[in-house]
Amino acid sequence: MAQMNMLEAIRDAMRIELKRDSNVLIFGEDVGKVGGVFRVTEGLQEEFGEDRVFDTPLAESAIAGMAVGMGTQGFRPIAEIQFVGFIYEALDQMFVQAARMRYRSGGRYNAPIVFRTPFGGGVKAAELHTDSLEGLAVQTPGIKVIIPSNPYDAKGLMISAIRDNDPVFFMEHLNLYRAFKADVPEGEYTVEIGKANVVREGSDVTIISYGMMVHTAVKAAEELEKTGVKAEVIDLRTLLPLDIDTIVASIQKTNRAIVVQEAQKTSGVAAEVIAQINEKAILHLEAPVLRVAGPDTVYPFAQIEDAWLPSAARISAAVQKVMNF
Questions:
Q1: SS3 for 42?
Q2: Average pLDDT over residues 43-66
Q3: How many whole angstroms separate alpha carbon 231 and alpha carbon 217?
Q4: DSSP category for residue 104
Q5: C-alpha–C-alpha distance, residues 194 and 290, integer Å
Q6: Model pLDDT for residues 234-249, shown as the tens digit of each residue
Q7: Buried b vs exposed e over 261-298: b needs ≥16 C-beta within 10 Å?
Q8: What are the helix (H) ranges across 21-96?
Q9: In the 3-class helix/strand/coil scheme, how is 177-241 assigned residue by residue?
Q10: How far apart are CA 227 and CA 206, in angstroms?
Q11: Angle at Cα 123 formed by Cα 118 and Cα 125, nearest 5°?
Q12: Contacts of 275 (CB under 8 A, 6+ apart)
């Protein structure tokens, strides 16, 4: 085992796959000599050469378009979009061309691409750098959506994503890159795509979340336990496909649930999770499933983002509401 933060774990996963498969390539803005704006790819160009890890022009549509073309020719591109707010320039290539490649070609071609991008608030970043845009991807058939919350999952899920024959939108929370270190195996291993993880056992209420909000949910659960409420916390890890079975199994035990997301409330991942809970577990519920989310506003400027982001106190208040229903 080694101690790694999430940034180091993601880099280690890419290094392993670059060594294992000569068809794996990394490209994007400043990912080469500089190592990316957050230094996630630092040292990889020096180790594997400019033919395997290289910089591109400042053109997200070109980055994603090149990835689609390379994917059809047997390569496994890892295409970095420098910040999540820049994906709008690449949506056609990502969500139309890549996501539909297998279907529209009758299975002749695949799009084994990992689109990496940092996202998420709490770091006082500039506009368009911290939005949570996973909801756009989750509504797109054909692309998988992964958001890890810790170094171990980040490495295992990245290796799984690179080996997957479908395009994967791999979102990395800015506030988790260097937040903490954890034990991570030094060799190769995978974490299954589409499988959630129960990170904290409980019996009274289920808190479902992903990314940075998992840690906020655990903090809330720890505070709730002091009041006698035992909350179970589920880390979705993969948003598409969604592991509804793990969620239902938890609700059958706790009979209450809330869903936490950093993104704006309307039409997000939380809404989809609640819809599926209603379809498959409504008779086990003793209270409505509530959402804790960002307000339905543009992501705010840095000075007030702490008031905008979901907090442990807001999660605890929602839990108390469902407990007292």
A1: coil
A2: 97
A3: 9
A4: H
A5: 23
A6: 999 999 999 999 999 9
A7: bbbbbeebbbbbbbeebeeebeebbeeebbbbbbeeee
A8: 44-48, 60-72, 91
A9: CCCCCEEECCCCCCCCCCCCEEEECCCCEEEEECCHHHHHHHHHHHHHHCCCCCEEEEECCEEEC
A10: 16
A11: 75
A12: none
161-181 tens-digit pLDDT: 999 999 999 999 999 999 999
**Residue 32: predicted pLDDT:** 96
pTM comes to 0.96
Catalytic-role residue among 129, 173, 215, 284: 129
CA dist 270 and 208 (Å) reads 9
In contact, 239 and 140? CB cutoff 8 Å: no
Q: What gap in Å lies between CA 184 and CA 198, rounded to an integer?
A: 18
**Strands of the sheet with 231-235, listed across from one edge:** 197-200, 231-235, 205-209, 257-264, 290-294
What does the pLDDT read at residue 151? 98
CB atoms near residue 126 (< 10 Å): 10
Cα maximum dimension of the chain: 60
Q: How does pLDDT run across 89-114, given as a tens digit for each residue?
A: 999 999 999 999 999 999 999 999 99
Q: Give the dihedral sign, CA 75/109/140/128.
A: positive
Task: Note if 173 is an active site residue.
Answer: no
pLDDT for 182: 97
C-alpha 109/C-alpha 104 separation (Å) is: 9
pLDDT at 126: 81
Residues 6 or more apart whose Cβ sits within 8 Å of residue 69: none
Does the pLDDT at position 2 exceed 90?
A: yes
pLDDT beyond 90 at 125: no
Separation between Cα atoms, residue 261 and residue 271, nearest integer Å: 10
Q: Is the pLDDT of residue 47 over 90?
A: yes
| Integer Cα distance of 111 and 69 in angstroms | 8
DSSP per-residue letters across 230-285: -EEEEE--EEETT-HHHHHHHHHHHS-EEEEEEEESTTSHHHHHHHHHHHHHGGG-
